[in-house]
Write a structure and sequence with these properties.
With about 400 residues, the chain is mostly helical.
Length: about 400
């Protein structure tokens, strides 16, 4: 096969993989929404007190924090052999889906120990659908195409965020067994299709894949992950805690299902234009600029005196978060090109889970309701995005200066 043919086949395989991963993100995110919708009802059937539901969700995030990085490291090892990689994803996803389908059945017939045990198995195994597929895409796609492909993948995540409020309204009166079975079956079929594409993509790219040994993460990678934790915490506090309160200044509670998706509309609209900037300027710079612009948008949302102003501010804040997410995965794959793509990408997802855990802990502790801490929760997202954005811009500038100073 000629170099041109190999390049064309590699590009075609990467595009198909990107489209498949977008679908995978969409299906998995909607499955998580289904889980959150029904968890209180299932926990009650299993004999678990309503006050413990938030502890179960925190347990999920604690597991994700560890397992996402572990799965990323596993992807670095298995990803060198495409056939093994596809089998790895398929088998672990099958276990995950079986555990998820069993939840509504076990809740009605077994005790809380069996129910929580299944949740732990599901949480551990579901991590195979985050960092590992992106690792595969990062290894077999041409470097200049990665930002576009990451925008494609994040589109699935953003669409899921936009439709989740409506899903909650539609599903709340249904028996949970059917949604759990359907969502798991669709996810498993999607993952099995991904494992097939993994083998095809690996076969096309095996002549150009470099065999390099992963190196310990120091310096820039660790600072990057630290900034990602801060950005994710800002997102969690702004969207999950403060946004509904902003809207309720001007709208009724029943209007929230129509207003909350505004954030995700902004998220989706900016992905592909931002990917062009990432291609030419790098992920760290785009993340930094998005952090600063997002902080300004949150300030406008805090001070908005009319619903229209608030909607525009939320649209911009969502666009900023879309830039951060797409750029973060692109930057993670670039930073991990020494054979640690999976590790760095897994750490990004671990950062997201850690921030979610912190937000849930704050809610469980009633931090946002305490008068002394209310201003902290209100303005913390602004501080998070400002500090992390400035730090990322400093990292991007230092990296650019280093490249200019290095000999040709």
């Amino acid at each position: 096969m000629s170099t041109v043919e190999l390049s064309d086949e590699r590009a075609s395989g990467a595009t198909r993989l990107g489209l498949h991963l977008a679908l995978l993100q969409l299906v998995f995110s909607l499955l998580w929404t289904t889980y959150v919708i029904y968890l209180p009802k299932l926990a009650a059937q299993a004999g678990i007190a309503p006050s413990a539901v938030v502890l179960i969700l925190m347990l999920d995030q604690a597991i994700f924090t560890l397992s996402d990085t572990a799965m990323g490291i596993a992807a670095d090892r298995f990803g060198r052999i495409a056939a093994r990689f596809g089998l790895f994803i398929g088998l672990v996803t099958a276990v995950s889906c079986c555990a998820f389908v069993a939840l509504p059945f076990v809740a009605a017939s077994a005790g809380p120990t069996a129910f929580v045990g299944l949740i732990v198995v599901w949480a551990l195994t579901s991590s195979v659908l985050r960092a590992p597929p992106l690792t595969l895409l990062g290894r077999h796609a041409a470097r200049p195409t990665i930002p576009f492909l990451m925008a494609l993948v994040m589109l699935g995540y953003g669409v899921a965020g936009a439709v989740s409020p409506y899903l909650g309204v539609v599903l709340r009166d249904y028996d949970p067994r059917l949604p759990f079975i359907v969502s798991s079956a669709v996810l498993l079929l999607t993952a099995l299709g991904l494992s097939r594409i993994a083998q095809d993509g690996g076969s096309a790219a095996k002549q150009v894949t470099l065999k390099v040994e992963p190196k310990p993460l120091r310096g820039l990678p660790l600072l990057f992950i630290g900034a990602m934790v801060i950005l994710a915490l800002g997102y969690q506090l702004h969207f999950s805690i403060n946004s509904s309160a902003f809207y309720l200044r001007f709208a009724r509670p029943e209007d929230l299902s129509w207003l909350m998706p505004v954030f995700w509309i902004g998220f989706n609209l900016v992905l592909f234009p931002a990917s062009v900037v990432v291609k030419h300027r790098g992920g760290l710079m785009v993340m930094g600029i998005a952090g600063l612009l997002g902080a300004i948008a949150i300030v406008i949302a805090e001070l908005a005196g009319a619903l229209n102003v608030l909607i525009v501010a939320q649209l911009i804040a969502g666009a900023a978060w879309g830039c951060m997410m797409m750029s973060a995965i692109s930057a993670a794959l670039a930073i991990g090109t020494t054979g640690a793509e999976g590790k760095v990408t897994g750490l990004v997802f671990s950062a997201l889970a850690l921030a979610t855990f912190a937000r849930m802990a704050a809610v469980a502790g009633g931090l946002q309701k305490l008068p002394d801490y209310a201003p902290l929760v209100q303005w913390a997202p602004v501080a998070c995005w400002l500090v992390a954005g400035a730090g990322l811009l400093a990292m991007a500038a230092a990296g650019l200066q280093g490249r200019r100073a290095s000999p040709p």
